[in-house]
Give the backbone structure.
Amino acid sequence: MRRLLKRIFPAPHTLRGRWFLRPFGARLADPQLWTLHRRGVTYAFGAGLAICFVPLPVHVILATTIAVIWRLNIPVIVGTTFLLNPFTVVPAYYVAYRLGAALLHVPRQHFHFVASWDWFHNSLAPVWEPFIAGCISCALLAGLIGWLSLEIVWRWQVTNRYRTRHLTPAGASD
C-alpha cells in the first residue's frame, strides 16, 4: 500500500508552488506532512472524508489548513476530498439532506434548484436546516468510518507482513 501511495502522490516541491498553498509558506516543509506513516495517513483519510461534506467550495484550502494544524499527510487529505466531485456531489448532498430531515423530524421538501439570488433568498429557507444537520452527521460518520476502516486495513497488513516474515525459515528459498 505504501508503494502505491508513493507512486500516486505528487512530489512535495511541486505542490508547494501551487497558488492555493502559498499562504502556508514554510510550514509545508515539515516532513511530517508528507511522510507515509499510519497515524498521519489514516487520520488524514478520515478528515478528508469529513471535509467532503462541507457544503462550500473550499475543500482543498480547508484540508490543507487542517493537515498543517494537526500535522496530517497533505496528499492523502487533499486527495480524499476529491472523492466528492461533480458526479458524486448531488447524490451525496441529497443523502445528507434526507438524513438531516430524518434526524430533525422535518418533512422532506421537494424543491427544484435554480442558480439565482431569488432561489437562495426564498426557496432555501425550508431546506437549509436539515441539509446542514445532514452534512454534519454525514461528515462525522464518513470521517469515523473512513478512519477506522483504513486503520484496521493498515494494521492487518502490517500484522500479516510481520507474520509472513517471521514464519518463513531464514534459509528457505522459493
Summary: Residues 70 and 80 are 16 Å apart (CA to CA). The mean pLDDT is 84.
